[in-house]
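Lab notebook, bench 4. Continuing the backlog of folding jobs that were queued last week. Each job is logged with the same field layout so the records can be merged later without manual cleanup. Today's entry covers Adenosylmethionine-8-amino-7-oxononanoate aminotransferase, a 425-residue chain. Filled in by technician R.K.

JOB TYPE: sequence-to-structure
TARGET: Adenosylmethionine-8-amino-7-oxononanoate aminotransferase
LENGTH: 425
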Amino acid sequence: MTPEEVVTVDRAHVWHPYAPMPARVDPYPVASAAGVRLRLTDGRELVDGMSSWWAAIHGYRHPVLDAAVVDQLGRMSHVMFGGLTHEPAVRLARSLVELSPPGLEHVFLSDSGSVSVEVAVKMCLQYQRGRGRPRRHRLATWRGGYHGDTFHPMSVCDPEGGMHHLWTDVLPRQVFTAEPPAGFDAPVDDAYVAELTDAVSRHADELAGVIVEPVVQGAGGMRFHNPHYLRVLREVTRAYDIPLVFDEIATGFGRTGRLFAAEHAGVAPDVMCVGKALTGGYLSLAATLCTSAIAEGIGAGGEVLAHGPTFMGNPLACAVANASLGLLGAGTWPAEVARVQTALRSGLEPLRGAPGVLDVRVLGAIGVVQLDHEVDMAAATAATVARGVWLRPFRDLIYTMPPYVTDDEDLARITEGVAAAVAAG
Ligand SMILES: *Cc1c(COP(=O)(O)O)cnc(C)c1O
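JOB STATUS: finished
OUTPUT FIELD FOLLOWS
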């Protein structure tokens, strides 16, 4: 197909994320990607400030990841997981158990982040039933979160600010507290601590679980909070035997400067979801981990965990996930993420106080500029592409989550792209 044909056929038939049909703006056709650059069909190259939605942490066409896929392709691309198993999945499960916070012992593999959250919710519900408490079937969370686009995850997304306000009368009604006070370094707000504790204790006899994104709330608004609130949730949920679920789909694998964001708080959840960067951005794969206590509760009375995706444990995806974890295991990522943090700070801090800018915040390999108005997407995108940078702002947020391997020169380009988007949008 010619590049023009690609765009024409796309416009006629292809739905894109959070888009109307027909789309209002044409997407940019990509021919290939390598390192931290996307190459468009017209030959232009864009430094990717998004890691393809926070997944491609090692960049594109990484030789080690490419080789892992090719090697696995020579053995088998897929086999069913019912009654069968294979080394790529087993190896991956063992690595995740070793790397994740203590106590998480069992791994359920699925195809996407949203499904891993569905599985986490199902684990909580089945755990409560196994413990003889079927009335505990609601979830609690704080506002400002994002947990995916399928229905149960949507019910714990931010009920107002999120993309799911359309569904308020369709979704199960969950228990919400206020959003956590802003700021990773902000002092602990005792009134908020009391609010969290009260909400969980007041609803304890109807709560199946508590689910939050630790430290960074991503697609719900790119907000950071003091890790202490996770310790508060850990204590109160333990007191009432309510499983605590950490959704580390966005934060996992080093993005916040720790391998998992839970480590900032020094607490371990009962259930944890990972996805996005799990395969280094190569293939769709997610996992839900849980403790032995959760597994035993679910299995009480001989019950099974009632879930089993067709492509569960896909060997290609597991093989590239193992290779990605191997790259992380080489141990260079903490220095890389620290370097990215420094570059994002120095590149973005000067925007504080610029016209239209409400806040600038950086944590790990995450840089956010929040405006006092909705971003003009078309103008902001045109401005960044003109500077050779790919960003995808949303709502009032222009942000970057670049691959960890992005060098200082390209990081400077990205922050200049953010500045250009701020000026344009
Ligand atoms: C992206 C995301 C999800 C959903 O993952 P998908 O793979 O898009 O289904 C869930 N939770 C968080 C925190 C996410 O960032």
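OBSERVATION: The longest strand covers residues 104-110.
SIGNED: R.K.
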